[in-house]
Amino acid sequence: MQDSHILVINAGSSSIKTALFDDHLTEVLRVEATGVGGTGTVKIGSTTRTADLPDNAAALAAIFGALSQQGIAVTSLRAAAHRVVHGGITLTAPCRITPAIRQAIADCIPLAPLHNPHHLAAIDAVAALAPDLPQCASFDTAFHATIPDIARRYALPDRADLTDLKRYGFHGTSYAALVRALPQQSGTLPKRLLACHLGNGASLCAILDGQSVATTMGYSPLSGLTMGTRVGEIDAGAVLRLVRQLGLDETETLLHHQSGLLGLSGISSDMRSLENRDTPKARFAIDHFCYWAARQAGSMIAAMGGLDAVAFTGGIGENSARIRNGILDKLSWMGNFPSYTVAAQEEIQIAREASALLNA
C-alpha cells in the first residue's frame, strides 16, 4: 500500500466505524468495531471476529491490527480523518488537529456530552498508536456556520453565560456532500433546496445558493423531527415538568433513547421494521414521522422564500419510497417541483476535506 490512503474514523459510544480511501478518494476497505466497552466484534469486509474491546483505544488497536493483516501499516497512512459532532462557535471549518484544536474540541464537550468525548478518545488513541500520523477533523456543525443570527439565536437574555446557547445544527457533513453530489443528477444546484437527512437521526436543512440558512436541529441533535429514539420537537415547559417528575438523568434517557419512533410504536426504532408491521401503533409512528417532517419543511421553505427542489439522503431518505412519498404528498400544496434521492457520502466528504487540508 502507498502512503496516499486516508482513514476516516467515526467514533461513537459503542462502536468505531472506519473507511479507507485511496488517492482517488475511492473507498477500498471498511473496518468496524462494535460492542466497545466489553466483548465485541471487529468486521473487516465480510469477515467478522470476536474481540475484547474494553475501550476506544482497544477498539482502534483492533482496527489497526485488522488493517495490518491486510498489508496496510498505520504508519504508512497519509492521515486519519475524524468525524466530530460539535465544533461550537469557533470550529467552523475542517482543520488539522493540533494541541490547540484538540483542546477546542474538548471545550465543546458541554455542548455534545454524548459525542465529543468519544471523538477525543479516538483522536488520543490514534496519537498514542501512531504519534507521527497527521490527524484532521470535520465538524457536523460547520456547514451551518452560514445560518444568520436571526435564525440561530434563541430569544434569551444577552448574557455572557448564555452565549453558547444557540441553534448550531447537525448532519453538516451529509449536507455538504449532498450539495457537492446533487448537480450530477440535477445538472445544477437548485437555488432553494430543501435537504432531508432522514435516518435514525433526522433533520431538514434550508439550503439557499448552496449555503445553510436554517435547519431543524438546534442546540443539540435532540430537537426537530421525530427520530428513531429521540423525541424531536417538544415544549420546554414539558421538559421542565419531566425533570421535576423523573429527575434529570431519567428525563435525559427518556428524551434521547426511549422516544421517537420507538416511543410511539412501542415496537422498534427501525423504520424498515415498522413498515413491515401493519399495526395501528406502527402506522401512527410512520404517519407522525412524515407529518412532522412536512410540517417543519414549511418552516425551512419560509426561510428560503420558496422552494425549487427537494433532496433526500440518509438511510430512510434513500431506501424508503413510502416515507419520501408521504412527505412529498404533504408538500404538494407547493405545486410542482423536482425531488431527488442522493446516496449519503459523509465518509468520502470527510476524506475529501482531509485531503484538501493536507494539500494546502
Q: Keywords, please?
A:
39% helix; five-stranded mixed β-sheet; eight-stranded mixed β-sheet; alpha/beta; globular; 360 residues
Describe the protein.
The strands form two sheets. Strands 5-4-3-2-1-6-8-7 form an eight-stranded mixed sheet, sandwiched between helices. Strands 11-10-9-12-13 form a five-stranded mixed sheet, with helices on both faces. The radius of gyration is 21 Å and the shape is globular. The longest helix is centred in the C-terminal third of the chain and has 25 residues, at 280-304. It is built from 14 helices and 13 strands. It is an alpha/beta fold and 360 residues long. β2 (15-21) and β3 (27-34) form a beta hairpin. α1 (56-69) crosses α3 (116-129), α5 (172-181) crosses α14 and α7 (236-246) crosses α8.
Offer a concise description of the structure.
The protein has helices spanning 56-69, 99-107, 116-129, 149-152, 172-181, 183-186, 236-246, 248-257, 260-265, 271-275, 280-304, 314-319, 321-330, 346-359, and strands at residues 6-11, 15-21, 27-34, 38-44, 47-53, 79-84, 95-96, 135-139, 192-198, 202-208, 211-215, 309-313, 339-341.
Strand content: 15-25%
Principal-axis shape equals globular
**What is the number of helices?**
14
In terms of quaternary structure, the protein is: single chain
Spatial order of strands in the largest sheet: 5-4-3-2-1-6-8-7
What is the CA-CA span between the terminal residues?
Answer: 23 Å
Radius of gyration: 21 Å
Number of strands: 13
Low-confidence stretches: none
Order of helices and strands: EEEEEHEEHHEHHHEEEHHHHHEHHEH
Main β-sheet description: 8 strands, mixed
Judged by helices, strands and strand pairing, the structural class is alpha/beta
- Mean pLDDT reading: 95
State the share of residues found in helices, binned by percent. 25-40%
